[in-house]
Design brief:
This protein is mostly helical and 87 residues long. It has helices at 10-22, 26-38, 44-49, 52-58, 68-86.
């Protein structure tokens, strides 16, 4: 499934954020999206604004513990999105 190119608005950023994570099975992405939402990260612009290491550290506290597989997947997705946005 391709994603149409749209202007960079917060609403479109939120749509694309949902699209990126929906590429994975729900049982994989749901805990990640919930943990990010707890941090106030609800769109791609917020996601890109975070440093990978800071993001991983923040997700380790306050009951947002993701397992190693989920943290690794989140880090890979974050790095991929950064790469895509810079190329």
């Amino acid at each position: 499934m391709t994603y149409p190119v749209k202007a960079h608005t917060r609403a479109n950023s939120a749509d694309f954020f949902t699209h990126v994570f929906a590429l994975f099975p729900e049982e994989v992405y749901q805990p990640i999206v919930s943990a990010l939402s707890d941090l106030g990260i609800d769109c791609l612009l917020d996601f890109l604004a975070e440093d990978t290491e800071y993001l991983m550290d923040e997700l380790m506290f306050e009951g947002r513990n993701l397992n190693a597989k989920e943290r690794r997947m989140l880090k890979n997705i974050h790095e991929w999105v950064i790469w895509e946005s810079s190329h």
